[in-house]
Design a protein that fits this description.
- The protein is an all-alpha fold and 186 residues long.
- Helices cover 78% and strands 0% of the residues.
- The longest helix has 37 residues, at 104-140.
- The protein has seven helices and no strands.
- The chain has two domains: 3-102, Helix Hairpins (Orthogonal Bundle), CATH 1.10.287.110; 111-185.
Length: 186
């Protein structure tokens, strides 16, 4: 199977980011898990989705590959990881979706979501603080030859940092609300 086919199974363009791969896997795993989807081919689709996810995660760090490296990685994959991935997928396909959702395997796809939302919020707070503190420090201690900063530039930077902070806050709040809903369902 070609690497582009693995991306296609997850419904992603080639060279998608790790975050996109993990999100696509969670959606497809929920869609095809036999505990939720009772169609006859759901189990096979779930296994293919899990196999694609495992392969893309294993080969993602290797970056752009030339043909020789790609075929070498595919062979290694077929010898070792493919059987392991299928066994894991079959195990999860036999278990309930609730149990699968609580597994370390499924939860590992969520770590990137939480860390990226929190990181974006922290960066937004820092930008806002540095904008305000930078302007105050520049007023108190102007650089010789530059003069004092203009109020217009401060207002523009302040507006941009407030917009960044607001967007990061909205994403953080939405993430927290989603987590609360998920916990209530349990």
């Amino acid at each position: 199977m070609l690497i582009s086919e693995y991306y296609e199974i997850l419904g992603l363009p080639v060279n998608s980011s790790l975050e996109e791969i993990k999100k696509a896997y969670r959606k497809k795993a929920r869609l095809y898990h036999p505990d939720i989807n009772h169609t006859p081919d759901a189990k096979d689709k779930f296994i293919k989705v899990t196999e694609a996810y495992d392969f893309l995660m294993a080969s993602h760090e290797k970056g752009q590959l030339d043909d020789q490296d790609y075929f070498r990685i595919v062979e290694e994959w077929r010898k070792y990881r493919q059987d392991r991935s299928r066994q894991r997928a079959q195990y999860y396909a036999r278990s309930s979706f609730a149990r699968f959702k609580n597994s370390k395997y499924y939860k590992s796809t969520r770590i990137l979501d939480a860390s990226s939302v929190i990181f974006n919020f922290v960066v937004a707070v820092m930008v806002l603080l540095f904008t305000i503190l930078g302007y105050i420090l520049k007023l108190k201690n102007p650089v010789p030859g530059e003069g004092k900063p203009t109020l217009f530039s401060f207002i523009i930077l302040l507006i941009l940092s407030i917009i960044l902070f607001t967007v990061a806050f909205i994403y953080l709040k939405a993430f927290i609300d989603t987590r609360k809903k998920e916990r209530k369902k349990k």
